[in-house]
Amino acid sequence: MKKFVINLLKILGITYVILFIVFFFDLDGKLLYYLWEPNAVMHYDRMKRKDNTLTPYGKKDNVMPDSEVKAKKIG
């Protein structure tokens, strides 16, 4: 039992040191910024999307009914 506890403490200590190094030097953020984000941007830039600038203004859906818009007072 004593050997198990010592081995568990060693594993937890090593895990703590690794996590401290990762977060102290912001390695997780650097990984996301330099590796993940460029790949995600390339993926999402290639997606086909409807051009919303071509939609006439009158065709856009109302967020709230006109009666509520008239009833609201700004300020």
Give a summary of the structure in a few sentences.
With 75 residues, the chain is mainly α.
How is this structure best described in words?
The chain is mainly alpha-helical and 75 residues long. It has a domain at 1-47. The protein contains 3 helices and no strands. The longest helix is centred in the first third of the chain and has 23 residues, at 2-24. The mean pLDDT is 83.
Number of strands: 0
Cα shape: elongated
- Kindly estimate the percentage of residues that lie in beta strands according to DSSP: under 5%
Mean pLDDT: 83
Q: What low-confidence regions span 5 or more consecutive residues with pLDDT below 50?
A: none
Structural class call reads: mainly alpha
Order of helices and strands: HHH
Distance between the termini: 70 Å
State the helix count.
3
Radius of gyration: 27 Å
Describe the sheet with the most strands: none
DSSP helix fraction:
55-70%
Keywords, separated by commas or semicolons:
75 residues, mainly alpha, 3 helices, elongated
Topology:
Elements: H1 2-24, H2 27-45, H3 66-71
